[in-house]
């Protein structure tokens, strides 16, 4: 690994490997002019307060002016956040980004009256407005969505009290974050070369991938020793967060915290239950995979710290960025000519910021908005993993591109529930392509390992979290205090059920609940698993079904124009049934069988 090498400064990067933000604003100067004009105008939106019930024209004018402002603000935000991320140590862009963020929160305050005022209007009256002014027809679905919130909206004075307390409600999550990111001090351990290294969140996952078992075990035990010492505090922050979600759900007339969280995407709770059932039914497949892992690693016992070390050396598959572009175009050919053209645009118009540089935000993401290119941030290394990341992020970017080009602004975005489907469909297509192309067994094993590990992390692991998340909310709602002893005992049991009898359940793993930031995201994690499973079914349909591609493209173009479950139904996946889940497990089983045969 070359991580010890000095990273280049931002200015030293070749321009063609950086993103072109000039298409948002030509220069910082034009950003400043746009910022100033926004600042000057947005406060006038307050003048529409109290006019929404005056008539169809008034409603339309207020709505369109608010949307225009939010669209303008979106451009300011995109430019500032990307400039900041390309070098987070750059003080000028830090300041720019801070200014946009504080402008955003002022903007939210300025228009905070809008939704409650609209919800207070009688539904019949809204229908009459749409009849009266045909330009409101465009907003019918938007207004219909909003109206479903009516029965969960309280009296104005009560809403004010809740809004005023929203800062307090975020305290458990903030406390967790500060404790976990700023205050925790991890012990010093020895790396592969026997050098003393301070354990951190960042290098913990690298150590778990180590080929050297002593290093993995030491990292694992030392990491958890810190959580063990603070387990009562972590239980208190987590319990606090669960209480907040349960309280909010109760006062807003939802049947549970899960009902409240899923309702924001118009998802019924059976979607969640089907996932837990299907994963439970397929745990034997997971156990088979773990058995194979134990065999390939030639271990007598498979421990929890043996889960991330690669089955074979990663260096057996190196891909440069130039090669990755070519492979991407080939692998995604089944998505048709229109999709190919957009990929080519992404490469030619410099949507992608490829290389690592000093101060650059770590990881990878896709970020765009209605009026601009959907940009991609990468920290490229020549590996199979990075090829998958590129294809994944391009899945998000093309989704954004097709949505914004085919929908009006009001529907020109898509919910998180659908987002991961577009990105992981590409990963599935890449896997199929690479397996077809692979000449050697080593290559095939590397690809299958990449896929199966991805499935394990996205479907089995995230569902385990989803199950525990729901368990905690349920228990707390029925009066069970979430003390650390209780959480440890149940997490340990759950972990044992997921990993099976063949894996040594190290006692430290009982504490895993204490370190997972996603438990503060309010029923977020299940969507990783449902998204990945839906994408397996879609990738198969694209390749084998005559109408598969057209239906898939209709999903990429739909945005918020319909409810997420309906959008997926159009695409050919009924997410309220177990069928799509079972199809995903069939793919997992098939690849697992291939890997087993290759290793024989
Ligand atoms: Zn993603």
Automatic annotation (TrEMBL):
Coiled coil, from the record: none
The keyword Protease is annotated on this UniProt entry: yes
Cofactor note (record): Binds 1 zinc ion.
Record-listed E.C. numbers: 3.4.24.-
Keyword Aminoacyl-tRNA synthetase set for record: no
Cofactor(s) required for function per UniProt: Zn(2+)
Domain annotation Peptidase M3A/M3B catalytic: ranges: 208-586
Domain Oligopeptidase F N-terminal: residue ranges: 117-186
GO BP annotations listed: peptide metabolic process; proteolysis
Gene Ontology MF terms: metal ion binding; metalloendopeptidase activity
Superkingdom of the organism of origin: Bacteria
Keywords linked to the UniProt accession: Hydrolase, Metal-binding, Metalloprotease, Protease, Zinc
Pfam assignment, any one: Peptidase_M3
Family: Belongs to the peptidase M3B family.
Function: Has oligopeptidase activity and degrades a variety of small bioactive peptides.
Name used for this protein in its record: Oligopeptidase F
Organism encoding this protein: Atopococcus tabaci
């Amino acid at each position: 690994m070359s991580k010890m090498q000095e990273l280049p400064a931002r200015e030293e990067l070749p321009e063609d490997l950086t993103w072109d933000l000039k298409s948002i604003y030509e220069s910082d100067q034009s950003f400043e002019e746009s910022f100033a004009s926004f600042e000057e105008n947005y406060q006038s939106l307050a003048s529409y307060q109290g006019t929404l019930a005056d008539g169809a024209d008034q409603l339309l004018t207020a709505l369109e002016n608010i949307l225009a402002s939010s669209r303008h603000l979106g451009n300011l935000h995109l430019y500032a956040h990307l400039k900041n991320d390309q070098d987070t140590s750059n003080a000028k862009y830090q300041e720019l980004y801070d200014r946009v963020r504080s402008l955003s929160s002022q903007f939210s305050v300025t228009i905070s009256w809008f939704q409650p005022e609209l919800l207070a209007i009688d539904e019949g009256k809204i229908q009459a407005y749409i009849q009266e002014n045909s330009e409101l027809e465009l907003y019918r679905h938007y207004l219909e969505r909003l109206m479903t919130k009516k029965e969960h909206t309280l009296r104005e004075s009560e809403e004010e009290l809740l809004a005023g307390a929203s800062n307090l409600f975020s305290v458990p999550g903030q406390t967790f974050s500060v404790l976990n990111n700023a205050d925790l001090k991890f012990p010093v351990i020895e790396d592969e070369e026997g050098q003393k290294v301070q354990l951190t969140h960042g290098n913990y996952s690298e150590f778990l991938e180590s080929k050297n078992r002593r290093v993995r075990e030491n990292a694992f035990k030392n990491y958890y020793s810190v959580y063990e010492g603070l387990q009562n505090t972590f239980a208190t922050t987590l319990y606090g967060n669960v209480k907040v979600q349960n309280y909010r759900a109760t006062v807003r007339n939802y049947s549970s915290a899960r009902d409240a969280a899923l309702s924001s995407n118009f998802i019924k709770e059976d979607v969640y239950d089907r996932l837990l059932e299907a994963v439970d039914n397929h745990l034997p497949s997971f156990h088979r995979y773990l058995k194979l892992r134990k065999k390939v690693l030639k271990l007598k016992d498979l421990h929890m710290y043996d889960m991330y070390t690669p089955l074979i050396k990663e260096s057996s598959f190196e891909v440069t960025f130039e090669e990755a572009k070519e492979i991407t175009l080939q692998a995604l050919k089944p998505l048709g000519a229109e999709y190919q053209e957009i990929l080519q645009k992404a490469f030619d118009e410099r949507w992608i910021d490829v290389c690592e540089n000093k101060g650059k935000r770590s990881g990878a993401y896709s970020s765009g908005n209605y009026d601009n290119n959907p940009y991609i941030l990468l920290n490229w290394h020549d590996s199979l993993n990075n090829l998958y990341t590129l294809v994944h992020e391009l899945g998000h970017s093309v989704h954004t591109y097709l949505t914004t080009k085919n929908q009006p602004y009001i529907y020109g975005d898509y919910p998180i529930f659908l987002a991961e489907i577009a990105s992981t469909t590409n990963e599935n297509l890449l896997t199929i392509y690479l397996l077809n192309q692979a000449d050697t067994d080593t290559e095939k094993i590397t690809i299958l390992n990449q896929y199966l590990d991805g499935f394990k992390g996205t479907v089995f692991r995230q569902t385990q979290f989803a199950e525990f998340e729901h368990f905690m909310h349920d228990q707390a709602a029925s009066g069970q205090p979430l003390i650390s002893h209780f959480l440890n005992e149940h997490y340990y049991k759950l972990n044992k059920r997921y990993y099976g009898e063949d894996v040594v359940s190290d006692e430290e793993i009982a504490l895993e609940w204490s370190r997972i930031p996603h438990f503060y995201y309010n029923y977020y994690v299940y969507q990783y698993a449902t998204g990945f499973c839906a994408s397996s079914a879609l990738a198969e349909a694209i390749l084998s079904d005559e109408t598969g591609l057209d239906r898939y493209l209709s999903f990429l173009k739909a945005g918020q124009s319909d409810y997420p479950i309906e959008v997926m139904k159009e695409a050919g996946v009924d997410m309220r049934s177990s069928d799509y889940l079972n199809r995903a497990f069939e793919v997992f089983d098939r690849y697992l069988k291939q890997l087993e045969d290759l290793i024989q």
